[in-house]
Design goal:
260 residues, mainly beta, twelve-stranded antiparallel β-barrel, two-stranded antiparallel sheet, 15 strands, globular
Length: 260
């Protein structure tokens, strides 16, 4: 059961906290392989605690629906200090027996004024019809010279699958009102034996709209609606498993986060 952690809409809690202070919100990267992004720069030397609660209408990762029916609830707690972020996340299916735990540590850094990144490790534990686990090493780069066109690339390596997954994204962030930002995005994903062994290359194309609203008392409300288009990796897997029909997915999510 290979899947990137948090492939559905987790709020980027730490980035959102920095956004509240700077009055420049950063959108939840709902399709990212990372659960929570570590802030590249932390000059306060004070620990931040963050809590996030959310729900997704489907559990979509790597362009695939991981549950036979229903959606999934998420709860995340994180502590960040000096660019180090330690987090724990639990997900539970709302209509079937499924539980997932993610435990991780991530380091955020700045390469230039406009180029930031992060790298980390996480342990995944899955409880459902089958018991499984995984270890992942991940990294991310993001270029933020202009808000209306923010390219990023993320990389995840799975020790169980001995394969990697790559996502290249473009976000366009628009602050439509004070504290309210809407961000349409595009993502192209590539699978290299992370999800399947039979095909390397294009996995799926995803697009959608993310929104974030900064509330009083360090609360952030965010949501997304997204659509995936299956490409060769998903199509080949479906063909080998005798699956027919539409392989594309549409899903949405809503999250509320609090930092203190």
């Amino acid at each position: 059961m290979n899947k990137t952690s948090q492939c559905t809409a987790f709020v980027a809690l730490l980035m959102s906290t920095s956004a509240i202070a700077d009055e420049a919100p950063n959108i939840d990267d709902s399709h990212s392989t990372n659960i929570i992004k570590a802030s590249p720069v932390d000059t306060s030397n004070q620990a931040q605690i963050l809590v996030d609660l959310g729900w997704d209408s489907k559990y979509i990762s790597e362009g695939r629906n991981n549950l036979d029916k229903g959606g999934i609830y998420w709860a995340t707690a994180a502590i960040q200090k000096n660019n180090i972020n330690v987090y724990a996340t639990v997900g539970r299916g709302d209509s079937q027996h499924y539980t997932e735990w993610n435990f991780g540590i991530e380091y955020g850094f700045d390469l230039t004024d406009n180029l930031s990144g992060s790298a980390g490790y996480q342990r995944l534990e899955f409880y459902g019809d089958e018991r499984a686990h995984d270890n992942e090493i991940f990294s991310n780069l993001e270029y933020t010279a202009v808000d209306w066109l923010v390219p990023s690339i993320s990389y995840t390596y799975s020790t169980e699958a001995e394969g990697s997954f790559v996502e290249a994204s473009l976000h366009s962030n628009w602050e439509l009102a004070q504290g309210f930002t809407v961000s349409p995005y595009l993502t192209q994903a590539f699978d290299f034996k992370y999800t399947t062994e039979d095909h390397d290359g294009a996995n799926h194309f995803q697009f959608g709209v993310e929104a974030e609203y900064l509330l009083p008392n360090n609360l952030v409300l965010s949501g997304h609606i997204s659509h995936t288009i299956a490409q060769e990796d998903i199509k080949l897997e479906a063909h080998n498993n005798g699956v027919t029909g539409n392989l594309d997915e549409t899903f949405a999510g809503l999250h509320l986060s609090w930092s203190f």
